[in-house]
Amino acid sequence: MRAERAEVLGCPVDRLTMKQTLLRIEELIGQRRFSQHVAINAAKLVAMQDDPELRRIVERCEVVSADGQSIVWASRILGDPVPERVAGIDLMQQLLGLAEQRGFRVFVLGARADVLERARQEILRRHPRLALVGVHDGYFSDEEAERIAGEIRDLRPDILFVAMPSPRKERWIARHGPHIDVPFVMGVGGSIDVIAGVTRRAPVVLQRLGLEWSYRLLQEPGRLWRRYASTNLRFALLILRARRRGRDGPRRAILRPSAGAVIAMPIVLARDAAATVPEGWLPPRDGIPAGALDEAIAWLCRSHDATGRRGSSKGFSLLHGWLPAYPETTGYVLETLLAYAQRRPDEDQLVARAREMGAWEVSVQDADGGIMEGHVRTRPRRSIVFNTGMVLHGWTTLVEAGFREFEAPAARAARFLVANMRADGTWRPAVEYGGIPHTYNARVAWAMLRWARHADDADVTEAARRQLCWTVSRQTRNGWFADCVFKAASDPSTHGIAYTMRGLLESYAIEQDDGWLAAVERTAEVLARKLELSPRLPANFDASWRPTSRHACLTGTAQLGGVWLRLHTITGDLRWLNAGLKAVEQAVRRQERLGWAPIRGALPGSFPTWGRYAPLQYPNWATRFLADSLMLYESALQT
Amino acid sequence: MKVVLVSRYPRVDSMGWKRQVAEGLLDAGIELAVLFSRARLLDQARAGLREEGAAVARRYVALRRGEPHGASPGQSLASWAAAHAVPVVRVGSLSDPHALDALAAHHPDLLVLLGADIVPAPVLATPRIGTINAHYALLPAFRGMNVTEWSILAGAPVGVTIHLVDPGIDTGDILHRETIPIEAGDTLERLRRKHQQLAARLLVRATLELRDGRAQPTSQAPGEGRQYYRMHPHLRRMTERRLAQLAARV
Which of A204, A217, A227, A243 is most deeply packed, by most CB within 10 A? Predict the structure, then answer.
């Protein structure tokens, strides 16, 4: 049966037509075990996103049908279609007919006494031979509930229609359903009102168009407009997001735009739309706006405050507000705070923050020594290589700054990385993001080399070298990296490429392996040309270095700026200084200047902000890499 | 021998160096034609703004007022061609099929690039002998853009290279290379004028050598030299300081 269920926004829906649903119900009645039906509409689907109790109830139901036309459409849009709408009211009418034919005993519970009486007469008028064994209105106390349940049990109905509002209906069924020996229970909501003639159904045209709700809205505009507006908007947004992520994507966060975001979003979108026009027309502006670095650091502090000073928030989303604490990037955000504190000695509170972040990372470290995938609420929870490496960076920096309490957790993280590595320099799929190897783990190898140097651990060094040699082996002759992606069958982004390059480059600075530097320069050469070719460095490139996106991945641009500036420091080649200054300037021009605290000073994921990389979001790592590169920029100008 | 001069239009020929090339070739008895590629006005404006910012507008205004611009304003190549009855072909872009037809109709032996855009391969295949270009740095070391500046910043000698054009960027065989000594009082602007004068002279010489079969092209080894891009203002300031030191030393 399960295989015949579609999934719409995380909710199971039977792939059954009306006819098949009736056959299925007949079969269930024949089995004489308790079973339940639920009809899903947009409102219930939206409510399920926030209400795990409701979700569990729905998942337990033996029959789940698409009550609204919008559910059928959503299932089609999301690529897991259900055949047709099986509206609750239609199903009830059909079931009454079936019951009359087959001699099933029917009981109706709920609604106001007078409405119920009219409905009873109407039902019997239409189905004169129906065994309607009893009815009871929905206005009874909890003490009476027990008695009524007993009464129903004694009447031995085959079908029980429950016309009470949610969630009272669900609670009543959950509590009494299994004990009353009724093989089929169905919630019918407002259907009794329709049968009694109290309310009328929308014209068939509106039903077909999925606009039945609009008819109800016209009947009771004052009570319903707010609910419909918010439900429909959220429903549409949920579908859009689910479609963008694909069905295997992570569970959606709760959509909760704040009042500030509702104001900021149109401004940000309009500004970016306007900013794309003169891009090709103006000479690139050089220099860094005053206070850019300070603003970026201040935002990183706010991302820490946003989680109650645990980790740094994954970022700020214009749709969802502050996101949960993010172990991976908090690992390196703390390094940036420490580096900034060294430049601005009056900022000691930053050292305290960095230490708090480090301590929080210790509190989320798993028993195996690794660091979990995703954000703190991601389930199932498992340790993965990259996050462990990024936190190892942070702890190593803290240890180097004199905080010895991070030595033990860092050593455990390093052991996790060595223990899970395979002979070819890749890690076991079980500890890899997406179960595939990644060349950007060169950034993990760099962390391992740093730690190995501190701890004088030859095993860690050896494992890191194996990873780096594998990464170099994945570089093609034109300087492109295979396996440099988060998900299989996608094109590498500047973000992932820069991770790989920086890992190799800094590893070269520690171990002096010329092959690693040569690999970095090969890629740096190509990307320096790409930086010249258009006013906005594209986010993704295919294996022949053709850009496959129009938006810029701003964190990637900022990171590459840092890679070029470091390349200049290491090799002395002024061409790298040239590219580095330009890339950092390109990124900093997109730093948020709007005065609203949750975004001011942050770098968006993409330019334009609606681009595919972290759309409408300010991920904490983007701002972190901007701050990091701005510090390198400052140093470069001083020499 | 029929030579087609290829230039963007209208670009300000402030130093008259393009005209000098034309005159030199005409004096040597070479049959000439001029091909102007003229991008759409919008594209011109866009390119101009991107390259020079507001300065391009100022320059344009100065030109319209007939103000002298540079040391020896001189005629433009277009008016010179008109005065000397040299045929002129105007095309949109060098990539237009129309441009290729117009060029082929002249059956050129040689194309001489005088500040042209990147030339597409089908155009390069049209002339019998080939296409030559003047590059404002010594190849093979400095390929690409702002190479005079890059040479100074790297402490390398500056100069002009005349080379045959192949589909790569500044990778074709070298015909002539001559360094320019840095003299007291040299600035980037003055050096640019010296490069133009030298380029004009060497382009005429290389053309005549190619006509007479005396040219000795030497190929560039792949992997020699590096590609340079438009210089960031910070590096340009470094270059200017470095040039001032060099010029003060002589």
Answer: A217
